[in-house]
Automatic annotation (TrEMBL):
Name of the protein described by the UniProt record: Cytidylate kinase
GO molecular function: kinase activity
UniProt-listed Enzyme Commission number(s): 2.7.4.25
Catalytic activity: CMP + ATP = CDP + ADP; dCMP + ATP = dCDP + ADP
Enzyme class: transferase
Gene that specifies this protein: cmk
InterPro entries: Cytidylate_kin (IPR003136), Cytidylate_kinase_dom (IPR011994), P-loop_NTPase (IPR027417)
Length: 219
């Protein structure tokens, strides 16, 4: 068996990384890895304020955690201790908790090992913030997906409205801006494009156009 193929997609909150990563993984018939979901599910398990705990207490909890991955494309399933990661992690509040714990080296070191272990076992489309820079620096295909904060808030607003969930555009824009600021400015593994990544500004592009760039990039 050859070495697994790794494709990385990084970018800020709400830019559509997951949608594109799922679609590209389906096209390549490989799993997609949502690393944001790994940070979110740890944040959810640890709970509010865990970013202020001492390192040993966090480490002890992490020692009992084990991530797994199965399936292909949009049917990829991420598990934590053999249970599929659920929709409870998909709120903006848990996103902020995730961003808070994502500043801690103890968390990043743990997830780096978990993510790299999955990348040894499987070919992956891996999406997150530091896939191309830190986790898989040797990946042959790297993308950085970007869009203005207004456009990203707008997409999230439409998505929530279509699910009949309450949404406030200004609040969404504010939450996304805050999370981005924290993710771009942290000391360890900040959000940024790898030097050898293809950057796609999708502000004025539709999904099909973005997908075409990704598909052509890996061809
Ligand atoms: O992508 P998603 O919004 O689910 O990510 C939640 C948070 O997890 C991000 O705001 C970021 O702080 C953190 N994260 C990270 N590195 C990754 C993926 C996510 O720091 N590779």
């Amino acid at each position: 068996m050859g070495k697994p193929l790794i494709v990385t997609i990084d970018g800020p909150a709400g830019v559509g990384k997951s949608t594109m990563a799922k679609q590209l993984a389906g096209h390549l018939s490989i799993p997609y890895l949502d690393t944001g979901a790994m940070f979110r599910s740890i944040a959810w398990k640890l709970g509010d304020g865990a970013w202020d705990w001492d390192k040993d207490r966090i480490q002890m909890t992490l020692d009992g955690m084990n991530f797994g991955l199965s399936g292909i494309g949009e049917d990829s399933v991420l598990t934590l201790n053999n249970t599929p990661v659920g929709s409870e992690i998909r709120t903006e509040q848990v996103g902020m908790w995730a961003s808070n714990i994502a500043t801690l080296p103890v968390i990043r070191t743990f997830l780096k090992t978990a993510q790299q272990n999955l990348g040894e076992k499987f070919s992956l489309v891996a999406e997150g913030r530091d896939m191309g820079t830190v986790i898989f620096p040797g990946a042959p295909h790297k993308f950085f997906l970007d869009a203005s904060v207004e456009e990203r808030a707008n997409r999230r607003f439409k998505q929530l409205s279509s699910m009949n969930k309450p949404a406030d555009f200004d609040e969404l824009k504010d939450q996304i801006s805050k999370r981005d600021h924290q993710d771009r400015n942290r000391v360890v593994a900040p959000l940024k494009a790898a030097d050898d990544a293809i950057t796609i500004d999708s502000t004025e592009m539709n999904k099909e156009q973005v997908f075409t760039v990704l598909k052509d990039g890996v061809a």
